[in-house]
Amino acid sequence: TPKPSSAASDVYKRQRLERLQLGDIVLHDVSALIAPGMDGDEILLGMSALKHLEFSQRDGTLMLRQSTLQ
Asked: What is the pLDDT of residues 58-67, one digit of tens each?
């Protein structure tokens, strides 16, 4: 069940995502915070997702790879 918490004038809802897919990367059982003020095609990944990824940046491109360390 979502637990609303207030931050400024927005209401954020905590959720547990059964499955999160980013291209070929699939993560399971990820904690999420739904932010209603973001545009439809924008996402913000927090540490609950990033801790499962390896990432690097080169020439303005962010490369994500699913971590083999778990």
From this structure: 999 999 999 8
